[in-house]
Design brief:
The chain is an alpha+beta fold. It contains six helices and six strands; from the N terminus they run E-E-H-H-E-E-E-E-H-H-H-H.
Length: about 210
């Protein structure tokens, strides 16, 4: 996935709308995000995760700016090297009862594919946007946060996953599920043949 543009408003310290043009930033090569603690560096990554999955890496529930009751995010990205096909994930959030003590709800969501001059809506409900992003990226929110957006202090989490969890994640990332299913099926068939052969040999042995 290649981030192209991010718009966020009302999220944590970003009360006013901010626009980050990643294409301009990466035009000269690598770039870094620097600033003192609390300046909003992590919020930029959080906003990407919110746009794609409606979740935050640190499982934070109240991320709306303290002076606002609503928030919005728009994330433009591409998946392949074909820059003509882009995807735009948009979401808006608000407090359930417009009070700071209530829970935050994802009120609207939309995912659009921009193919040249043509635009097609792939999903127009929050849950559908999440499901489509998982399908497009091949990553669940947990996978994304472990491999793409690593929360502070959790850079080695992937390395410490149990073997089964790591294997399942890598299967999703590299679309290897079908090979795992095929291998399991082959092993099962071979085991059945072996059991039938042993049963046949036992029967012949008893007849001797």
């Amino acid at each position: 996935m290649r981030p192209l543009q991010l718009k966020l408003k009302g999220i944590n310290s970003y009360r006013e709308e901010q626009v980050i043009d990643f294409e301009t930033l990466t035009s000269q090569g690598l770039f870094g995000i620097f600033g003192p603690t609390g300046s909003g560096k992590s919020t930029i990554l959080d906003a990407m995760t919110l746009a794609l999955y409606s979740k935050l890496p640190r499982d934070t529930k109240n991320f709306i700016n303290t002076n606002e009751t609503t928030a919005s995010v728009s994330f433009l990205f591409s998946i392949t090297t074909d820059r003509t096909r882009k995807y735009l994930a948009e979401r808006s959030f608000r407090y359930h009862n417009n009070t700071y003590t209530s829970t935050v709800r994802n009120t609207t969501g939309r995912l659009i594919v921009c193919d040249g001059e043509n635009e097609t809506v792939l999903a127009d409900k929050p849950t559908e946007v999440t499901a489509e992003c998982i399908r497009l990226l091949g990553l669940t929110s947990e996978d994304f946060m472990r491999t793409v957006v690593l929360p502070q202090g959790q850079f080695s989490e992937f390395l410490h996953l149990k073997n089964k969890e790591r294997r399942i994640m890598l299967q999703r990332i590299f679309h290897l599920e079908k090979y795992g299913i095929e291998l399991t099926s082959k092993i099962s068939r071979a085991k059945q043949k072996q059991e039938l052969l042993l049963s046949k040999l036992d029967g012949e042995k008893k007849e001797l």
